[in-house]
Amino acid sequence: IRLGCEFGPLVPAGSADIMLALEPAEALRYGHYLSRDGAALVNTYPVLPTTVTTGKSKYPPLDEILAPLRKICRTVKTLDATKLASTAGNPQTMNVVMLGVLSKYIPLREEILIESLGDSIKTKYLEVNRRAFELGKGEV
Protein backbone atom coordinates (compact mmCIF):
# COMPACT_ATOMS: atom_id res chain seq x y z
CA ILE A 1 0.00 0.00 0.00
CA ARG A 2 1.37 3.37 -0.92
CA LEU A 3 0.37 6.33 1.22
CA GLY A 4 1.21 9.79 -0.04
CA CYS A 5 1.56 11.59 -3.35
CA GLU A 6 3.42 8.85 -5.21
CA PHE A 7 1.43 6.91 -7.80
CA GLY A 8 2.14 3.55 -9.34
CA PRO A 9 1.60 -0.07 -8.45
CA LEU A 10 5.20 -0.93 -7.55
CA VAL A 11 7.28 0.16 -4.60
CA PRO A 12 10.91 0.54 -5.73
CA ALA A 13 13.44 -1.78 -4.09
CA GLY A 14 15.03 -0.21 -1.03
CA SER A 15 12.26 2.33 -0.47
CA ALA A 16 9.47 0.64 1.51
CA ASP A 17 8.84 1.97 4.99
CA ILE A 18 7.01 -1.09 6.29
CA MET A 19 6.66 -4.71 5.30
CA LEU A 20 3.95 -6.84 6.87
CA ALA A 21 4.89 -10.50 6.40
CA LEU A 22 2.26 -13.08 7.28
CA GLU A 23 4.95 -15.78 7.38
CA PRO A 24 8.77 -15.78 7.66
CA ALA A 25 9.83 -16.88 4.17
CA GLU A 26 7.61 -14.16 2.72
CA ALA A 27 9.63 -11.62 4.72
CA LEU A 28 12.88 -12.94 3.30
CA ARG A 29 11.50 -13.04 -0.24
CA TYR A 30 10.43 -9.38 -0.20
CA GLY A 31 12.85 -7.87 2.30
CA HIS A 32 14.86 -6.16 -0.44
CA TYR A 33 12.01 -3.68 -0.86
CA LEU A 34 12.62 -2.24 2.62
CA SER A 35 14.55 0.96 3.18
CA ARG A 36 17.32 1.12 5.77
CA ASP A 37 14.94 3.02 8.06
CA GLY A 38 12.12 0.58 7.32
CA ALA A 39 10.40 -1.92 9.59
CA ALA A 40 9.72 -5.59 8.95
CA LEU A 41 6.73 -6.91 10.91
CA VAL A 42 6.97 -10.69 10.72
CA ASN A 43 4.66 -13.49 11.83
CA THR A 44 7.08 -16.24 12.92
CA TYR A 45 4.65 -19.10 12.30
CA PRO A 46 5.75 -20.75 9.04
CA VAL A 47 3.43 -21.82 6.26
CA LEU A 48 5.22 -24.81 4.81
CA PRO A 49 5.19 -25.16 1.03
CA THR A 50 4.44 -28.49 -0.61
CA THR A 51 8.11 -29.02 -1.41
CA VAL A 52 8.85 -28.97 2.32
CA THR A 53 5.90 -31.11 3.40
CA THR A 54 6.82 -33.73 0.79
CA GLY A 55 10.46 -33.75 1.90
CA LYS A 56 11.89 -32.32 -1.33
CA SER A 57 13.31 -29.27 0.39
CA LYS A 58 13.85 -27.88 3.89
CA TYR A 59 12.36 -24.78 5.40
CA PRO A 60 15.15 -22.49 6.63
CA PRO A 61 15.53 -21.93 10.37
CA LEU A 62 13.99 -18.68 11.60
CA ASP A 63 17.35 -17.13 12.49
CA GLU A 64 18.55 -17.69 8.90
CA ILE A 65 15.50 -15.81 7.67
CA LEU A 66 15.73 -12.93 10.13
CA ALA A 67 19.50 -12.31 9.94
CA PRO A 68 19.42 -10.88 6.38
CA LEU A 69 16.39 -8.74 7.27
CA ARG A 70 18.26 -7.24 10.21
CA LYS A 71 21.03 -6.20 7.82
CA ILE A 72 18.53 -4.55 5.47
CA CYS A 73 16.42 -2.51 7.89
CA ARG A 74 16.64 -1.09 11.40
CA THR A 75 13.48 -2.61 12.83
CA VAL A 76 12.49 -6.26 12.68
CA LYS A 77 9.47 -6.99 14.88
CA THR A 78 8.66 -10.68 15.24
CA LEU A 79 5.72 -12.38 16.87
CA ASP A 80 3.76 -15.60 16.63
CA ALA A 81 0.61 -13.94 15.34
CA THR A 82 -0.98 -17.33 14.67
CA LYS A 83 -0.70 -18.26 18.34
CA LEU A 84 -2.12 -14.89 19.36
CA ALA A 85 -5.01 -15.38 16.94
CA SER A 86 -5.75 -18.71 18.61
CA THR A 87 -5.69 -16.93 21.97
CA ALA A 88 -8.20 -14.43 20.57
CA GLY A 89 -10.47 -17.35 19.73
CA ASN A 90 -9.81 -18.15 16.06
CA PRO A 91 -6.45 -18.84 14.35
CA GLN A 92 -7.90 -17.47 11.11
CA THR A 93 -7.71 -13.98 12.62
CA MET A 94 -3.90 -13.98 12.33
CA ASN A 95 -4.06 -11.29 9.66
CA VAL A 96 -6.01 -9.05 12.03
CA VAL A 97 -3.41 -9.63 14.76
CA MET A 98 -0.85 -8.37 12.25
CA LEU A 99 -3.10 -5.41 11.45
CA GLY A 100 -3.03 -4.57 15.17
CA VAL A 101 0.78 -4.58 15.08
CA LEU A 102 0.78 -2.49 11.91
CA SER A 103 -1.56 0.05 13.52
CA LYS A 104 1.32 1.21 15.73
CA TYR A 105 3.46 2.03 12.69
CA ILE A 106 1.07 3.81 10.32
CA PRO A 107 -0.60 7.23 10.45
CA LEU A 108 -4.18 5.96 10.49
CA ARG A 109 -6.41 6.33 13.51
CA GLU A 110 -7.26 3.07 15.23
CA GLU A 111 -10.98 3.86 14.97
CA ILE A 112 -10.72 3.86 11.18
CA LEU A 113 -9.06 0.45 11.16
CA ILE A 114 -11.62 -1.02 13.56
CA GLU A 115 -14.46 0.48 11.53
CA SER A 116 -13.04 -1.07 8.36
CA LEU A 117 -13.14 -4.47 10.05
CA GLY A 118 -16.85 -3.99 10.58
CA ASP A 119 -17.25 -3.18 6.89
CA SER A 120 -15.65 -6.43 5.74
CA ILE A 121 -16.32 -9.02 8.46
CA LYS A 122 -19.61 -10.66 9.35
CA THR A 123 -21.05 -9.39 12.62
CA LYS A 124 -20.76 -12.79 14.31
CA TYR A 125 -16.95 -12.72 13.78
CA LEU A 126 -16.40 -9.09 14.68
CA GLU A 127 -15.70 -9.54 18.39
CA VAL A 128 -13.02 -12.22 17.88
CA ASN A 129 -11.40 -9.99 15.28
CA ARG A 130 -11.43 -7.04 17.67
CA ARG A 131 -9.72 -9.22 20.29
CA ALA A 132 -7.15 -10.27 17.69
CA PHE A 133 -6.50 -6.62 16.78
CA GLU A 134 -5.97 -5.69 20.43
CA LEU A 135 -3.60 -8.61 20.99
CA GLY A 136 -1.52 -7.55 18.01
CA LYS A 137 -1.49 -3.93 19.12
CA GLY A 138 -0.35 -5.06 22.56
CA GLU A 139 2.72 -6.74 21.10
CA VAL A 140 4.30 -3.45 20.07
- Please write the string of helix (H) and strand (E) elements: EHEHHEHHHH
Distance between the termini: 21 Å
What sort of overall outline do the alpha carbons produce when their principal axes are compared? globular
Average pLDDT reading: 94
Largest sheet data: 3 strands, parallel
**What's the β-strand tally?**
3
Number of helices: 7
Give the tally of structural domains. Answer: 2
Entry keywords:
140 residues; alpha/beta; 2 domains; three-stranded parallel sheet; 7 helices; 47% helix
Give a summary of the structure in a few sentences.
This protein has 140 residues and is of the alpha/beta class. The chain contains seven helices and three strands, in the order E-H-E-H-H-E-H-H-H-H. 47% of the residues lie in helices and 15% in strands.
Describe the overall structure.
This protein is of the alpha/beta class and 140 residues long. It has 2 domains: 11-79; 81-140. Helix content is 47%, strand content 15%. The protein contains 7 helices and 3 strands; from the N terminus they run βαβααβαααα. It has helices at residues 24-30, 50-53, 62-72, 81-88, 94-102, 110-120, 123-138, and strands at 16-21, 34-43, 75-79. The chain is globular and about 40 Å long.
